[in-house]
Amino acid sequence: MDYASKTKWRVRIAALVIFVLGFSAGALAFNVYRAWSRNRVEATRREGFDEMLDRLQLTGEQKTQVHQIISETRQQLQALRQEAEPRVNEIRQRTDERLQKVLTPDQWKQFQQKRDEMRSRRRGRQRQE
Question: Contact 111/103 with Cβ under 8 angstroms?
Fold first, then answer.
């Protein structure tokens, strides 16, 4: 291989390395930003809840009891969601089977794409809350 060919390949490899490093840095920065903003949203929510409790002028004991009630409720709701998830998935699967019988293959594909887009947007909003 002559010198000019080696130089061209080195430039191409360097450009590829720079691209990969830039892409990786961008992905890392995006993930850090998402984690930071998610934490900020959670902190804002907690601050709003604490502010509401302050407005109610609760005693220390009442605040402790309210936090305990909210915590227990959160745990119960999470358990209920986990318990109901298999049934929800079963209903969704049956619905999909019925829809596939009604829609054309192209319509079914479009329906799936739109449904998946809506679900991902909803998940994104839920994460931010």
Answer: yes
